[in-house]
């Protein structure tokens, strides 16, 4: 069931989302050659706890960390580890959520580590722009399919592919709520967007084919062809004045 948030609930959610955005920024500032993804996760957890919030992902479905940190060919759900040391030229997707006063925020960004290749930079630029193409469609009385269609069209026109096996989602009192928000689809199809709906739009874009598989740790999702993958996400609210991005740092 899709939940509609009141103005008061949206204001509480904005707080959770700002903490999530601050945690993501802190993670990005820490990305550099030589740091472990475990150290970045610790920075994220400390930031969130310092705000009086708790990390949404820690323990979610048994996930063992506060942030998902996914390097290069890892699409999503990378588990931070002391043995995963970032190197110059890596691309580093960080996905983080915070729970505060009853609501979750959720956001992700793929950071360059040191100097990255032109092709990696082009993938990051296209994925980030595709998120904004999707957000533009998140207007009252549009449908979920309008978002996915816009993301897919933008991505495929640049020769990349959209991951099918994982999608965006409603977000609020629960981290994952209805509706599902695929990054592919048909305009005019799916759930109608109404004021007070809050959704996480999160294109996952592969340099090669869209196929993914899960590693033996049951979490880490990688591209089947071993090529790069990028991931950008915002939590947004549908409002009569248009889409409002909630996961922004003040
Ligand atoms: Mg999400």
Write a brief structural summary:
With 250 residues, this protein is α+β, with helices and mostly antiparallel strands.
What are the key terms here?
250 residues, globular, binds magnesium ion, Creatine Amidinohydrolase, alpha+beta
Structure overview:
The protein is α+β, with helices and mostly antiparallel strands and 250 residues long. The chain has one domain: Creatine Amidinohydrolase. The protein has helices spanning 7-30, 37-50, 118-136, 144-157; strands spanning 54-55, 67-71, 74-76, 91-100, 103-112, 161-162, 168-170, 177-181, 198-201, 204-206, 212-214, 221-223, 229-231, 234-239, 242-245. It has a five-stranded antiparallel β-sheet with strand order 8-7-9-14-15. Strands 1, 2, 4 and 5 form a four-stranded antiparallel β-sheet that branches. Strand 7 (168-170) and strand 8 (177-181) form a beta hairpin. Helix 1 (7-30) packs antiparallel against helix 2 and helix 3 (118-136) packs antiparallel against helix 4. It is globular. Magnesium ion is lined by residues 106, 169, 200, 202, 233.
Percent helix, as a range, is: 25-40%
The separation of the N and C termini measures: 32 Å
CATH architecture: Alpha-Beta Complex
CATH fold naming? Creatine Amidinohydrolase
Heteromolecules bound:
magnesium ion
CATH C-level class is Alpha Beta
Percent range for β-strand residues: 25-35%
The number of distinct β-strands equals 15
- Helical region count? 4
Give the uncertain stretches in residue-range form.
none
* Sheet with most strands: 5 strands, antiparallel
Based on CA atoms alone, the radius of gyration comes out at 17 Å
Q: Average pLDDT, to the nearest integer? A: 98
Q: Tell me, briefly, the overall form.
A: globular
- How many discrete domains? 1
CATH homolog superfamily? Creatinase/methionine aminopeptidase superfamily
């Amino acid at each position: 069931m899709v939940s509609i948030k009141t103005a008061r609930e949206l204001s509480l959610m904005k707080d959770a989302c700002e903490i999530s955005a601050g945690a993501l920024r802190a993670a990005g500032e820490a990305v550099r050659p030589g740091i472990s993804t475990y150290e970045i996760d610790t920075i994220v957890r400390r930031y969130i706890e310092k705000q009086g919030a708790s990390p949404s992902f820690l323990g979610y479905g048994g996930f063992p960390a506060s942030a998902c940190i996914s390097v290069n060919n890892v699409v999503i759900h990378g588990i931070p580890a002391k043995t995963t040391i970032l190197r110059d030229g890596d691309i580093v997707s960080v996905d983080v959520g915070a729970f505060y006063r009853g609501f979750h925020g959720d956001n992700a960004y793929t950071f360059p580590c040191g100097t990255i290749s032109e092709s990696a930079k082009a993938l990051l630029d296209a994925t980030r722009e595709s998120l904004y193409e999707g957000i533009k469609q998140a207007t009252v009385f549009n449908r979920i399919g309008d978002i996915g269609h816009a993301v897919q069209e933008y991505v495929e026109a640049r020769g990349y592919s959209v991951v099918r096996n994982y999608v965006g989602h409603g977000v609020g009192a629960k981290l994952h709520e209805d509706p599902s928000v695929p990054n592919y689809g048909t305009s005019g199809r799916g759930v109608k967007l109404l004021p007070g709906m809050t959704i996480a739009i999160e294109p996952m874009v592969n340099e090669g084919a869209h196929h993914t598989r899960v590693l033996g740790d049951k979490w880490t999702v990688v591209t089947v062809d071993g090529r790069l993958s990028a991931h950008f996400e915002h939590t947004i609210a549908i409002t009569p004045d248009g889409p409002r991005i909630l996961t922004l740092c003040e």
